[in-house]
Amino acid sequence: MKLLIVLQHRFELWNAPDWFVQRLRQEFPNLEITHLRNYDGIDQEIPEAEIAVTWSLRPEQFALAKKLRWIHSPAAAVHQLMFPELIASDVILTNAREVHGPVVAEHVMALIFALAKNIPESVRMQSKHVWGQEILWNQSPRPREVSGATLGLIGVGSIGRHVAQNASAIGMRVIAAREHTQKEKPLGVDEIYPSSEIDKLIAQSDYVVLAAPLTPATRGIMDVARFARMKPGAALINVGRAPLIQEPALIDALRSRKIVAALDVFEQEPLPANSPLWDSESLLITPHTAGLTDKLWERHYALFSENLRRYLSHQPLLSEVDKSRGY
Description:
Rossmann fold; about 35% helix; alpha/beta
């Protein structure tokens, strides 16, 4: 049985370290494991692979993979794999949502506190040697308490569930919107709205957190009308996918200083130097760092090796993606 690992990314952390492959070979000596550091040789290697660990495949590469039965993505988002041939196939797709969820949720809480306490403005004033106590108090929004505030959560997957637990633990009221309201209410969530009632959630929320997968239904859900429904001084946080937001509408909302925002994901990464987002004092930018942790590949190994044991013993896999829904 052949396992093909092909991960190529400009950011070194997203590439599988040597120890990851070596440990797999030691723990699963009966597997033939091939590790490619780029896609140059994939056409020659994938026809014999039964398992693949990769960010993405092109349809023509997938067509060569006659023996492929399971694809594992080290990402949480798998929209780049949602082409018709794979969706219609019996190939199992798993992702790393449980690897990233708790880590990204910590980042969300950091962003909430940073926006609530006007930390970005304090940093700007520090660089100018300005003692800004009165400035911070007199500007809008003023420093505020997080406990007692309402957090509106769009998306209750792994990230959303951990955000809800963290936020509830510090006294926030958590309301959430999701497609399937009949499912059991997640721990920490006070109230669930159907996706059709996102407007009601937004109108109540002091913090709107986007943690939904990118699907045709969620693309551009934050548009001009929804920014208009946000409370004055409310905060928007996006740790999902950039296309959840219509960027021109966000830029207009920031310029009006009606809201503040924190973004970790962008349509184009790295964010171009000429993007107007850089100069918005109402926006906190983190450069897609929400999922970064020095324990990342240990977390990946724990999930993938457990799933590999399950696969070899014909047990259900963890974090399986519903390909018909795209998450």
